[in-house]
Amino acid sequence: QVQLVESGGGLVQAGGSLRLSCEASGRTFDSYAMGWFRQAPGKEREFVAAISLSGGRTSYVDSVKDRFTISRDNAKNTVYLQMNSLKPEDTAVYYCAARGTYSSGSYYRNQYEYAYWGQGTQVTVSS
């Protein structure tokens, strides 16, 4: 099992930046593909970004491409989401998720493929 704790959310003006962090417990972090999802009020949770075991492959939802960057530091058991040029529509609770895998190059965009979830961190972007 792995436990995930997100941090780094907050209130920021449109055009600003935030970096979210998600620290995982356990010694096998490099056996988990990681993802970030978000849920805005009244909306379903949606995929934001995903990263493979080594970090060599990433995927993004179209609405955040060229603005958000997912990365991971396996030595620190942490995955990051750097968010630049934030827009009011990015306002949501952001969740990180983990999925155990033996496939080094795989990432996962479907939330139902993830077994472990953090508690979420609120990101609010004011206009």
Regions with little confidence, pLDDT below 50 for 5+ residues: none
**What is the terminal-to-terminal distance?**
40 Å
Write down how many β-strands occur, each being a DSSP E stretch of 2 or more residues.
11
Question: Could you estimate the helical fraction of the residues in percent?
Answer: under 10%
What is the number of helical segments per DSSP (H or I, 4+ residues)? Answer: 0
Structural class of the secondary structure composition? Answer: mainly beta
What proportion strand?
over 45%
**Biggest sheet overview:** 7 strands, mixed
Mean pLDDT: 96
Rg on CA atoms, Å: 14 Å
Order of helices and strands: EEEEEEEEEEE
Shape: globular
Give a structural overview.
By secondary structure, the chain is mainly beta. The chain contains no helices and eleven strands. The strands form two sheets. Strands 2, 4, 5, 6, 9, 10 and 11 form a seven-stranded mixed β-sheet that branches. The protein has a four-stranded antiparallel β-sheet with strand order 1-3-8-7, with no helix packed on it. The chain is globular, with a radius of gyration of 14 Å. The model has no long low-confidence stretch (mean pLDDT 96).
Short descriptors:
48% strand, single chain, 0% helix, mainly beta, 7-stranded mixed beta sheet, 127 residues, 11 strands
Give a quick rundown of the structure.
The protein has 127 residues and is mainly β. The protein has strands at residues 4-7, 10-13, 18-24, 32-39, 46-51, 58-60, 68-73, 78-83, 92-100, 116-117, 121-126. The model has no long low-confidence stretch (mean pLDDT 96).
